[in-house]
Design brief:
Aldehyde Dehydrogenase, Chain A, domain 1; binds nicotinamide-adenine-dinucleotide; 42% helix; alpha/beta; 7-stranded mixed sheet; single chain; 6-stranded mixed sheet
């Protein structure tokens, strides 16, 4: 497999892909270790994860540069990701014992009752490339703490990072017969679906997620899916500082070059402040520097995958053909690398792909609305249900909108944010099940009910 730097299109490394046979072998290795791992006292499992947490900091310079070379995100954002991943790990370190402890339900009666949380067994962690540390730790950290064995398949676009993760986990004392990286593309993922695993935890596109759910349905094991979105942001007419909101919305749209599952993907602005909002938004968008992600001044790196350039181009062209007006950017940069200039399109409608299909890049459509009712109608007009954001001075007015959203997450005066203490979940085509928070600790164990007499 060739690992390509999306900023230069150079091959940075060649890595051998796993075969079906080598993946079966890795599964057998973990089969030998998982029961013993589950018997290791919880505090020792947590202590190993704590070492991993420290190593991520110790090696952050190497890890950040490799992440940027592999997926193209601006270097500071690679550091931010490592930092964010460490915060999530810290949450698991601090909170797992509480949520994995046995629970006495009845201690006084003749029949005493308790719940004991047992690991699922051996799980697959099939992961995405856009935040390989963040979406990885959501799964393999609580899974390992919970006593499971993990077959971790990083995205083929984040393989170097996946190998770093494995190396640092081993260095931290996670046994080789409990964690194995599976290297490869779709066929490697398919080989995992063909194994009799005890759970499938997937982060990626709706298309692949749905396929995995269908393929694994007959196994009757937990399947969790963290999928894409078309997340709306609505700016009400009562916001105090239109410029600050425009800057926040822009950051939510283009951070990580727009490749966040919870990126702001479409914006609705109340007609009373629309012109002012557009002025600031467009002038800020024009200031963004697109280029070499290793340069400090760069705000927008390349998109990670070549095919995405064609998709973004098509969305912008479709919008323009239907009456959309491009106010900044508009297309790819010429020369080497998968660069797309941050693009703002107005005069948009839901007849355009730009407003209905996930873009996953630095392009955004902004639509004028006359009131909250129209905004809610448009915000809800999507098969996705990951997040929705509202900016307003009034909590009551914002709450009225948030309550109507069929999404796993809602934001008031913020956007594009994840908290380790809150469940991360998508509804409808955005996913199934939750990671993070205590839900994301319990997701990797199964309850056993004890009925005790005597
Ligand atoms: P993808 O679906 O192309 O790939 C995801 C993973 O699935 C990769 O590891 C890939 O190799 C594997 N895969 C591909 N075909 C497979 C098959 N047939 N069987 C098993 N595995 C297979 O997604 P991607 O491009 O890596 O990620 C981008 C998508 O992920 C976006 O839609 C984004 O919104 C979503 N995402 C969601 C979240 C979330 O938390 N909801 C987080 C990050 C990314």
């Amino acid at each position: 497999m060739h690992i390509i730097n999306p900023a230069t299109e150079e091959v940075i490394q060649e890595i051998a892909e796993d075969t079906t046979e080598s993946i079966q072998k890795k599964y057998k290795i973990i089969q030998e270790g998982q029961v013993a791992w589950a018997a290791v006292p919880l505090e020792k499992r947590i202590a190993a994860i704590e070492k991993f947490y420290n190593f991520l900091d110790e090696e952050k310079d190497t890890l950040a540069v490799d992440l940027t070379r592999e997926v193209g995100k601006p270097l500071q954002q690679s550091y931010n990701e490592l930092n964010g991943a460490r915060q999530r790990i810290q949450y698991f370190i601090k909170n797992s014992a509480r949520w994995l402890a046995e629970e006495w339900i009845t201690e006084e009666d003749a029949t005493r009752e308790k719940i004991v949380y047992e690991p699922l067994g051996i799980i697959a962690n099939i992961s995405a490339w856009n935040y390989p540390y963040l979406v990885g730790v959501n799964v393999f950290v609580p899974a390992l703490i919970g006593g499971n064995g993990v077959l971790y398949k990083p995205s083929e676009y984040a393989t170097i990072t996946g190998l770093h993760i494995q190396r640092l986990l081993y260095r931290a004392g996670i046994p080789e017969n409990i964690f194995q990286v599976v290297i490869g593309k779709g066929p490697a993922g398919q080989a995992l679906l063909d194994l009799p695993l005890d759970g499938y935890f997937f982060t990626g596109s709706y298309r692949t997620g749905k396929y995995i759910a269908e393929q694994t349905a007959g196994k009757l094991v937990p399947v969790q899916l963290e999928l894409g979105g078309k997340d709306p942001l609505y700016v009400m007419d009562d916001v105090d500082d239109v410029s600050a909101v425009a800057a926040a919305a822009l950051d939510g749209a283009v951070y990580n070059t727009g490749q966040s599952c919870c990126a702001v993907e479409r914006i609705y602005v109340h007609e009373k402040i629309y012109d002012q909002f557009i002025d600031v938004f467009v002038s800020e968008a024009k200031k963004l520097v697109t280029g070499n992600p290793l340069d400090k001044a760069t705000g927008i790196g390349p998109v990670s995958r070549k095919e995405q350039i064609a998709l973004l181009k098509e969305q912008v062209e479709d919008a323009v053909a239907k009456g959309g007006k491009v106010l900044s950017g508009g297309g790819p940069l010429s020369g080497r690398g998968y660069f797309f200039v941050p693009t703002v399109v107005v005069n948009v409608s839901h007849d355009m792909k730009l407003m209905t299909d996930e873009s996953f890049g630095p392009v955004i459509g902004i639509q004028k609305v006359k009131d909250d009712r129209e905004a809610v109608k448009l915000m809800k007009d999507t098969p996705y249900g990951l997040t929705a954001a509202v900016y307003s001075k009034s909590y009551d007015r914002a709450e009225n909108v948030m309550k109507q959203m069929d999404t796993g997450t809602v934001y008031w005066n913020c956007c594009d944010r994840v908290s380790a203490a809150l469940p991360w979940s998508g509804r409808k085509n955005s996913g199934l099940g939750a990671t993070l928070s205590y839900h994301g600790i319990r997701a990797f164990v199964q309850p056993k009910a004890y009925h005790l007499r005597g």
